[in-house]
């Protein structure tokens, strides 16, 4: 493994600081387009299934040049090689990080026999369940949380056009009974398959919901638990103790938020079938190859990760808004919240020293056009600059072409408006039919001014298919890897979730007993109020 310097210890970081002061802070992307008619071509990139227009970002060729130097000095390429080779780059847990091995062709990556042993068995099982006339299964309920939920919950609706028409998929994650109760109300035991999805098989939320499901199953006349409950886990023993006999395993080198390619993808495979699931894996593998083999200046995940660093550490932007213009991607922002913020929301370097710079941005968003009618006001005219990422899909999987044209024109227009803006002079010349008759025209024009120069990236897919979605997700995984490597952090652990978990275990019996000894006054007061 490499011992490369972290971002702020490099010469490139200092160069980027100087570059930011000289050209970055006041960079105007409109002027950059006026200066360089070839900017769109120069800043558009092709990766498998994904075309990326980076030209509306606040970067010029010098910025990219320094950022590529930064990646080189931080040893991103060596770290990438270590990941693909299965070295234990998750140093705090002493684990390899090998989600790429889950989608590599047979025999080409570490643990191939184990991977294909499970995959082949799982996909054979999937085909038997999808024969609904024989299996009787009409509803699949995935019980899992975090990485054991968000991937399948994002992918199944994204690939709605490919989903088995006779099956309905439900996702239960929250330990709040308001999650599982309305799901169970719609089910019959004989038609339902419960998947208990948990890497550890100890997660409180998942275990509580799994027990609730089992109790419901028995209370409603369900008899064949072995047929109606399966588990996806690395802890096969615990699943057996729960009473589950059909288990698809995976391994500690698969991180929860990188696990949809493993047995955790069972609900996806049940929804879209074996062939499409293999296409999802193949799409991700194509992006893996791009990330591993494409020279840095054309390597899309690498460039996106570096621009994230540029925005976070030099421009000081603290969030990124995701705007997928495809309703199927409605859960993509939530999925990316875990992928990015659990991976890179860290404040110490690999050697334990406290970082003097920001790491993960806040990632948030909604599908377009819904976001436009909610918070785009702030993106256009608010006081913060928030880079936006548009995802446009050229061809829909429905036949309502007039709607699709409207959708695409909205996505294009928002990116255009963010960049172009509208000057006060332009606003003053326009008529504003809904404006007050009494307002001073100058004041009104000020309210109707758009500063513009607000950065965005546009990713474009031909169509949302298993293959293209696989590539898109892998693109985000590798982008997160890149920024994490520059920041010199461990993107593959999640110690930050532990403290709250431990405190909840301590508070659970106190809620019953009312014992507040040793608690801070606020927690004690709230607990007492909850009991009153
Ligand atoms: O939220 C913490 C976490 O460990 C995630 O990383 C993981 O995806 C989730 O909990 C679920 O864990 P498990 O799959 O072990 O139930």
Architecture overview:
With 532 residues, the protein is α/β, with parallel strands linked by helices. It folds into four domains: 16-88 and 280-422 and 454-487, Rossmann fold, CATH 3.40.50.10490; 99-277, Glucose-6-phosphate isomerase like protein, domain 1 (Rossmann fold, 3-Layer(aba) Sandwich); 423-453, no CATH class; 497-531. 49% of the residues lie in helices and 11% in strands. The protein contains 22 helices and eleven strands. The chain has helices spanning 11-24, 29-35, 39-42, 61-73, 76-85, 112-130, 132-135, 150-158, 177-185, 204-219, 225-228, 236-242, 266-293, 300-315, 332-344, 376-381, 401-420, 424-429, 441-447, 466-487, 498-513, 521-531, and strands at residues 44-47, 50-53, 139-143, 168-172, 192-197, 229-233, 246-249, 319-325, 362-365, 388-395, 456-463. It has a six-stranded mixed beta sheet, sandwiched between helices. β1 and β2 form a beta hairpin. The longest helix has 28 residues, at 266-293. The protein is globular and about 75 Å long. Residues 145-148, 198-200, 203, 206, 256-257, 342, 494, 497 line the site of 6-O-phosphono-beta-D-fructofuranose (F6P).
Annotation field: number of helices: 22
CATH C-level category of the largest domain: Alpha Beta
Broad shape: globular
Q: Report the portion of residues in β strands.
A: 5-15%
Summarize the structure.
The protein is an alpha/beta fold and 532 residues long. It has 22 helices and eleven strands.
Give structural attributes.
11 strands, binds 6-O-phosphono-beta-D-fructofuranose, 532 residues, globular, 4 domains, 22 helices, Rossmann fold, alpha/beta, six-stranded mixed sheet, 11% strand, five-stranded parallel sheet
């Amino acid at each position: 493994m490499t011992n490369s310097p972290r971002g702020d210890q490099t010469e490139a970081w200092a160069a980027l600081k100087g570059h930011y002061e000289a050209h970055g802070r006041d960079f105007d992307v409109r002027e950059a387009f006026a200066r360089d008619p070839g900017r769109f071509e120069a800043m558009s990139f092709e990766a498998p299934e994904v075309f990326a227009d980076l030209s509306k970002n606040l970067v010029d060729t010098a910025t990219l040049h320094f950022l590529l130097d930064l990646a080189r000095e931080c040893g991103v390429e060596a770290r990438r090689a270590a990941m693909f080779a299965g070295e234990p780059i998750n140093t705090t847990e002493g684990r390899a990080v090998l989600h790429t091995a889950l989608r590599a062709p047979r025999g080409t990556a570490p643990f191939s026999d184990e991977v294909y042993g499970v995959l082949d068995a799982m996909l054979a099982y999937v085909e038997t369940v999808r024969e609904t006339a024989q299996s009787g299964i009409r509803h699949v309920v995935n019980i899992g949380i975090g990485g054991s939920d968000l991937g399948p919950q994002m992918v199944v609706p994204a690939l709605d056009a490919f989903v088995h028409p006779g099956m309905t998929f439900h996702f239960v994650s929250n330990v709040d009974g308001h999650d599982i109760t309305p799901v169970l109300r719609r089910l019959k035991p004989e038609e339902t398959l419960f998947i208990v999805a948990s890497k550890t098989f100890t997660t409180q939320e998942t275990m509580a919901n799994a027990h609730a499901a089992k109790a419901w199953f028995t209370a409603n006349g369900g008899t064949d638990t072995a047929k109606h409950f399966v588990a996806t886990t690395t802890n096969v023993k615990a699943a057996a103790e729960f009473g589950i006999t059909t288990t698809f395993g995976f391994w500690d080198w698969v991180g929860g938020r990188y696990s949809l390619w493993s047995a955790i993808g069972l609900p996806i495979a049940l929804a879209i079938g074996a062939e499409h699931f293999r296409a999802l894996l193949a799409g991700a593998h194509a992006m893996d190859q791009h990330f591993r083999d494409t020279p840095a200046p054309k390597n899309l995940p690498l460039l996106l990760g570096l621009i994230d660093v540029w925005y976070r550490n030099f421009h000081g932007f603290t969030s990124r808004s995701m705007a997928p213009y495809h309703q199927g991607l409605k859960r993509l922002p939530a999925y990316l919240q875990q992928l990015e913020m659990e991976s890179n929301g860290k404040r110490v370097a690999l050697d334990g020293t406290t970082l003097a710079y920001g790491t993960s941005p806040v990632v948030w968003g909604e599908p377009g056009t819904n976001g436009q009618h909610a918070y785009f006001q702030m993106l256009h005219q608010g006081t913060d600059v928030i880079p936006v990422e548009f995802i446009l899909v050229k061809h829909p999987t429905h036949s309502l072409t007039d709607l699709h044209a409207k959708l695409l024109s909205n996505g294009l227009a928002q990116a255009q408006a963010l960049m172009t803006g509208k000057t006060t002079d332009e606003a003053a010349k326009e008529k504003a039919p809904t404006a007050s008759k009494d307002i001073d025209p100058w004041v009104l024009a000020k309210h109707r001014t758009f500063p513009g120069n607000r950065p965005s990236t546009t990713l474009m897919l031909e169509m949302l298919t298993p293959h293209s979605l696989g590539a898109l997700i892998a693109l985000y995984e590798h982008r997160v890897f890149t920024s994490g490597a520059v920041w010199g952090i461990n993107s593959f652990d999640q110690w930050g979730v532990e403290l709250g978990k431990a405190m909840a275990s301590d508070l659970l019996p106190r809620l019953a007993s009312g014992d507040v000894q040793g608690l801070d006054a606020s927690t004690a007061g709230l607990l007492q109020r909850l009991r009153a």
